[in-house]
Amino acid sequence: SSGINAEYGGSEKRKRARKQSNESSSSDDSSTSSSGSSREEPVKTSGRRRSPEPDHNASAGTAESLDRIARIINDSDQAPLKTNSERYSPAPEEHSQEPQPVVPAATYLPPPSANTQMTQSKDLLFLLNKYPIMWTGTIALKNDTANVQLHFLSGSSTLAEGAIGALPNLGPGPMRIAQRMRLEPNQIEGVQKRMQHEGHWCMLLALPHCTDPVSLSTQTTVLQQGFISYLDSKQAAGIINLSVPEQTSPYVLHIFPPCEFTRVNMKRFCPELMEGAGDCGYLLIVIATV
Q1: Would you say 183 and 264 are in contact if contact means Cβ atoms under 8 Å apart?
Q2: Which residue of 45, 111, 178, 209 could cross-link 149, Cys pair, CB 3.0 to 4.6 Å?
């Protein structure tokens, strides 16, 4: 009986040992299977995503940028404030240039022709007083009109006064040049012959006239372009026939633009006026009786 029990006890021990060995083997297989599946399919979590690993290079760059901004702010706090004119001032090389003076509008000069009239010397004004004004009015040629003053130069003052007094006989309006005489030698010789008869001729100088410098400039331009240039292009002198009822011989006005005839006679009778009159433009008028 004791032998049977011993054999039975040994058999039981061997069974328990095998059972434990199987359970241990089964546990190892289960853990191996579980670990393999975990490598093949990662477990999805329902929580927050894991933060990426910090980038130490980016952190260093950010710190450097913040440090540079801090230095700029510190420098601007220490520097004096600049006004708008200092902030937007031109480049240094532009400062080296001399600033151009700004001329006020009130000091602008009128056109050159008006300026020439305004700057006539006192000597010329004295000479114009020396040659008295015989008439102030308007002359016309074609579609142009100009305001002029007639200054007495030489000849018969009585004849000049008689001719000026008869101007209203021309009718209302300006003294109009209606005819022309060619500047040919025989025509000019005829005028020169009349000038040899004392008391039968006179010479006047027509100059532009107005009361203010700007208008004077306009009248000068009209006289030069509408009268002088036109007569010069036609190589002619203007003619006005002035009849007087109680007088048998009418007055004939010969109106010459600047030419050789006018230069010779101005040099002869009024050499002092040649330069000043030439600057502003003029017409030389010879009045004679037929």
Answers
A1: no
A2: 209
**Model pLDDT for residues 259-284, shown as the tens digit of each residue:** 999 999 999 998 888 776 777 789 99
CB 213 within 8 Å of CB 117: yes
pTM over 0.85: no
* Cα–Cα distance measured from residue 214 to residue 222, given in angstroms and rounded to the nearest whole number: 13
Nearest to 205 by CA among 123, 129, 131: 131
Residues in the chain: 290
Instruction: Tell me the per-residue pLDDT of 30-42, one tens digit each, with 9 for 90 and over.
Output: 444 444 444 444 4
DSSP collapsed to 3 states, the chain: CHHHHHHHHHHHHHHHHHHHHHHHHHHHHHHHHHHHHHHHCCCCCCCCCCCCCCCHHHHHHHHHHHHHHHHHHHHHHHCCCCCHHHHCCCCHHHHCCCCCCCCCHHHCCCCHHHHHHHCCCHHHHHHHHHCCEEEEEEEEECCEEEEEEEEEEEECHHHHHHHHHCHHHHCCCCEECCEEEECCHHHHHHHHHHCCCCCCEEEEEEEECCCCHHHHHHHHHHHHHHHHHHHHHHCEEEEEEECCCCCCCCEEEEEECCCHHHHHHHHHHCHHHHHHHHHHCCEEEEEEEC
CA 196 – CA 154 distance, rounded (Å): 12
CB 190 within 8 A of CB 252: no
